[in-house]
Amino acid sequence: MPSRNGVGPSVAMAVADPGDVAEVRRAVAAMCRAAGLDKTEEGRISIVVTEAATNVVKHGRGGEVVLSPLQRGEAVGIEVLALDRGPGIPDPAALGGGHSTVSARGTGFDAIRRQSTELDLYTIPGQGTALLSRVWRGAPPTTPLDLAALCVAQPGESECGDLWSFEARPGGGRIVVADGVGHGPLAREAASAALQATWERPPGAARALEEAHRAARGTRGAAVAVVEVDLATQEIRFAAFGNVAGVLVGPERVQSMVSMSGTAGQGKLKPREFTYRFVRGELLVIASDGLTSEWSLEPYVGLALRHPGLVAGVLYRDHSRRRDDVTVVAARLGARSLST
Question: pTM of the predicted model, to two decimals?
Answer without folding.
Answer: 0.92
